[in-house]
User: Fold this.
Amino acid sequence: MTNFNSHYSDTEWIDQVHQLLFEIVRSSLSDKPKLPEELAERALPLAQKAKIIQEKADGQVIPPDSLEWVGKVRQLLLDLSRASLADIPRLPVSMGQRSLVLAQTAKEIKDKVTEKNHSS
Assistant:
C-alpha cells in the first residue's frame, strides 16, 4: 500500500532543501557573505529527515540513485548548522558552490518526482 503522507513529506523536503540551498547561494554571492537567519533551526530538521530518507529502503519518492545526493545534502546541512552555531558565525567559502551543485540536483530530482507522479 502506498503511503501518500510519506511521499508528500519527501517531496516537501526536496522543496525545502532546494529553497534553503538557493538562499545560501544568494548569501554567498553578496558583498558581505553571511549565513541566513536561524540557519541551524531550519537545517537540523532537514538533516534529520535526510537521515530518515537514507534509512528507509522501500516506497520512497526519492529515486534510489539519488540517495548519495541525500547524504551529501545531509552533510552540508550539518556543516552549515555547525558554522551557524560557532562563536563567530560565518559562511564558509566553499558552501556557496557546494550549495549550488546540490540545489541544481534537487531541482532535477523534483522534476523527476513530479513527472513520475503525473504519469502514474
